[in-house]
Amino acid sequence: MASLNMDNEAKTFQAPANAARIYVYRNESMGGAIPLTISLDGKTLGQTGPKTYFMVDVSPGQHQIDSYAENVSSLNLDTQAGKIYYVWQEIKMGMWSARSALHEVPEAQGQKGVMECKMAQPNGVSSR
C-alpha cells in the first residue's frame, strides 16, 4: 500500500500539465478475498483488493487497461495531457471465481469511488 501522504495527495485530483492521470478503483467488498491483477499497456500494475485504487500518470495517447479474473476485461482510453480518467473495476460472480468488468466513469462518480478507497502502490510503473 502507498503511504498516507501519497493517498492524500492523490485525492486532490489534480493532473500534471504534461501527462494524463488515470485512477483505477475497486470500491466494492464483493469478492474481497480475491485479489485481481491490473495491467496498463501490458505491464502489471499490481493487484486490487476491496476498497483499493491505483493512480498512474501516462503520456497522452492510447492506453489499454486489463483486469484479470475468471475473465479478462479490457478498456482502451484515448488520453489527453492535463486530464483525469476514472476507471471502475466492477466485481461480479463468475462460474468458478470472481469476474470483473472495467468501466470508464464520469468525474463525480470516479472521485466518489476513489475517496472510498486506499491507494495501492503500482509495481514497476511510476506514479506521483
What structural class do the secondary elements suggest?
mainly beta
Gross morphology is: globular
**What kind of sheet is the major sheet?**
5 strands, mixed
Average pLDDT number = 91
Query: How many angstroms separate the termini?
Result: 14 Å
Strand content: over 45%
Record field, number of beta strands: 9
Provide the low-confidence segments as ranges: none
With helices defined by DSSP (H or I, 4 residues minimum), what is the helix count? 2
Instruction: Give the strand order, joined by hyphens, for the main sheet.
Output: 8-7-1-4-9
Helix content: 10-25%
The whole-angstrom Rg is 13 Å
User: What is the N-to-C order of secondary-structure elements (H for helix, E for strand)?
Assistant: HEEEEEEEEHE
Blueprint (SSEs and pairs):
Layout: H1 4-10, E1 20-26, E2 36-40, E3 43-48, E4 52-58, E5 61-68, E6 72-79, E7 84-93, E8 98-105, H2 107-115, E9 118-119
Parallel strand pairs: 1-7, 4-9
Antiparallel strand pairs: 1-4, 2-3, 2-5, 5-6, 7-8
